[in-house]
Design a protein that fits this description.
Belongs to the class-II pyridoxal-phosphate-dependent aminotransferase family. BioF subfamily. This protein is of the alpha/beta class. Helix content is about 45%, strand content about 15%. The longest helix is centred in the C-terminal third of the chain and has 18 residues. Bound molecules: pyridoxal-5'-phosphate.
């Protein structure tokens, strides 16, 4: 007997493939880095979030070996049962101190942290206010919270203010990417904080792409935001930090509340403690990482100068390691991405509907692990292809 639901999946997959929207996984051999072996081909990678080249850093790898000998592999239980290891605990303290908040909580992933914070702070009677370009995990989090979900046009704080003024919800939470993941632009933290104060809202900032990179590695919070009880800060730890997980930093009371109420924290096995030991070393590398950040900024400047007079395609105004080159149609982005790949350069094409119509782009990401020569190769190839 035929199984109709399975046949519908097959039709759905065929439709994606026909529309050139099927996603495929490339297989990486060896470590992540500026130079990778991917699908059997050696390539320069402009497609990771390993902005500081820490994913395979020798000091962090040494920390992993040392920790494995001390604590084995598995955490064995959730944090509230018996899985909360000294390494997890010490990392939380070090992270909170580094970003200038009173307490922190370590999660297994940024996705889970976002579900946790939004659902724990906003219930069915609350309202979440979100930038339309926020990361998918923040969209899912607001939907899971089950209250009102109100979105404002990207960066349109006048629209946000109107929405806040009209809100009758008791709990209000403004949530935004701090550095937007597909555009590379940075939110105006103090302007959002002004609105949060004026309309008595929480302000939750997801700094997945700024932590490790901005402000000596401390991320995108301003001094005012560090000091504000209403600001909750998220860093993900699989990007510039080069490891895995995510940390939320906030007022001690917020962290205490999350430990009691956040389901994606409570009902999951703690991450392997070895990862927290790696994160402690990563934090040291980030703190002492001014040379890496300076190199990264040089690469950003080199790319922007090199592509300023490109015939087709425009870099979006970004000072972060995310440098999107907008080329217009989906087909053009795919053509360029494939042609670059044939030259041993990997840059992903980001298409509609992930980004608005006619803004398909190459999402170039830079790392301090790149050499100036890697960036020059990309610039030359793009001129040759455009
Ligand atoms: C990557 C990312 C996340 C998810 O973090 P993971 O640790 O990879 O689950 C959340 N928010 C933003 C803005 C991101 O870019």
């Amino acid at each position: 007997m035929s199984f109709a639901a399975l046949a519908r999946l097959q039709q759905g997959l065929a439709a994606l493939s026909a529309d050139h929207l099927e996603r495929r996984r490339a297989v990486l051999e060896g470590p992540q880095g500026a130079h990778v072996t991917i699908n059997g081909q050696d390539a320069v990678s402009f497609c990771s979030n390993d902005y500081l080249g820490l994913a395979a850093d020798p000091a962090i790898v040494r920390a992993a070996h040392g920790a494995l000998d001390q604590c084995g592999v598995g955490a064995g239980a959730a944090h509230l049962i018996s899985g909360h290891h000294r390494f997890h605990h010490d990392f939380e303290d070090a992270f909170a101190r580094f970003v200038g908040k009173s307490a922190a909580l370590l999660f297994s992933t940024g996705y889970m942290a976002n579900l946790a914070v939004v659902t724990a702070l906003v219930g069915r009677h609350g309202e979440v206010f979100a930038d339309k370009l926020n990361h998918a995990s923040l969209v899912d989090a607001a939907q899971l919270a089950g209250g009102h979900f109100t979105r404002y046009r990207h960066g349109d704080l006048a629209q946000l203010e109107g929405q806040l003024a009209a809100s009758r919800a008791q709990e209000r939470l403004i949530v935004s990417d701090l550095v937007f993941s597909m555009d590379g632009d940075v939110v105006s933290v103090d302007a959002l904080l002004d609105l949060a104060e004026r309309y008595d809202a929480w302000l939750y900032l997801d700094d997945a792409h700024g932590f490790g990179v901005l402000n000596g590695g401390r991320g995108g919070l301003t001094e005012r935001a560090r000091a504000s009880d209403r600001v909750i800060y998220l860093a993900t730890l699989g990007k510039a930090a080069g490891v895995s997980g995510a940390a939320v930093a906030a007022h001690q009371t917020v962290i205490d509340w999350l430990v009691q109420k956040a389901r994606p924290y409570i009902y999951t096995t703690a991450s392997p403690p070895v990862l927290a030991a790696c994160l402690l070393e990563s934090l040291r590398q980030i703190e002492g990482g001014d040379a890496r950040r300076a190199r990264l900024q040089q690469h950003v400047a080199q790319l922007r100068t090199g592509l300023a007079d490109l015939k087709r395609g425009t870099l979006m105004p970004s000072a972060t390691p995310i440098q999107p080159l907008v080329v217009g149609a989906n087909a053009e982005a795919v053509r360029l991405s494939q042609a670059l790949r044939e030259r041993g350069l990997r840059v992903p094409a980001i298409r509609t509907p992930t980004v608005p119509a006619n803004t398909a782009r190459l999402r170039i990401t830079l790392s301090s692990a790149h050499a100036a020569d890697d960036v020059a190769r990309l610039v030359d190839a793009l001129h040759a292809l455009s």
